[in-house]
Specification:
About 75% of the residues lie in helices and about 5% in strands. By secondary structure, the protein is mainly alpha-helical. It has 2 domains: about 140 residues, Helix Hairpins (Orthogonal Bundle), CATH 1.10.287; about 60 residues, no CATH class. It binds zinc ion (ZN). Zinc ion binds next to loops.
Length: about 240
């Protein structure tokens, strides 16, 4: 029986190693994904900023047309001035010229504002573009490194998976079945030691009688709380009895 328990302990060690390797691979992949996400967000900001520029350009052109119209009206009214006869007509034209000149000034100010905003946004676009390009290059290099690292881990994993197959085949079928079921239900941890009378799977103290049973190792002992398979780990200062 002790031999079967040792096989279970070994199997757990192998499975924990596989889980650790899988975890490392997942972390590498998550880092790359997070950086891809950051770049995608920057590109979205870039697209939004370009849209803003486009919109401001459109407004600027519309205002420019307003400005040109006002200029044309001023010229037209000024030409008319030479032809008018009455002071009333003269006054009316002067008023219109004044209004259009005001509009000329006002549209010119607005155009300048648009151009300033566009210039500012274009600077932002340039900065963002450079950032994106830089990060994409860095990420491409790092992705290459990460992919190599993942391949390396997968090679080691293959070896460990082979070990697992051998170890599993060596175990009594009913134990293996119970172990696999537990592994699945208990987040990859099916076989745990007792430390100071405490189950190292759920950290709940076990009845002293059970600690003794586990220590004897005559049968498979399960933690009454988490149902994990228990084994006894000899403390260094403890002499092996029996
Ligand atoms: Zn437990």
């Amino acid at each position: 029986m002790k031999e079967e328990i040792n096989k279970l302990i070994n199997l757990q060690a192998i499975d924990s190693e596989i889980a650790g390797l899988d975890d490392t691979i997942a972390k590498h992949q998550a880092t790359v994904t997070a950086r891809e996400q950051t770049i995608a967000e920057q590109q979205e900001t870039l697209a939004n900023t370009r849209n803003k520029i486009e919109l401001l350009n459109q407004k600027q052109l519309e205002t420019k047309a307003e400005h040109d119209d006002a200029g044309a009206r001023v010229k037209e009214r000024q030409n008319k001035m030479m032809l008018v006869q009455t002071s009333r007509e003269h006054q009316a034209l002067l008023k219109e010229i004044e209004e259009n000149k005001r509009l000329l000034k006002e549209t010119e100010d607005r155009i300048l504002q648009f151009l300033e905003q566009i210039e500012q946004l274009e600077k932002e676009v340039t900065t963002l573009e450079n950032q994106c390009i830089g990060e994409q290059q860095l990420l491409a290099e790092d992705t290459n490194t990460v992919e190599k690292e993942i391949k390396r881990i997968e090679v080691s994993k293959k070896t460990v998976v082979n070990q697992r197959e051998k170890q599993a085949a060596d175990l009594q079928a009913n134990y293996l079945k119970r172990y696999n079921k537990l592994l699945d239900k208990r987040a990859g941890l099916a076989v745990v030691p007792i430390n100071d009378g405490v189950c190292q799977g759920c950290y709940i103290a076990l009845p002293p009688q059970q600690v003794n049973d586990v220590r004897k190792g005559d049968k498979i002992n399960l933690c009454p709380t988490c149902q994990r398979i228990l084994y006894y780990q000899e403390q260094e200062d403890e002499a092996v009895t029996e």
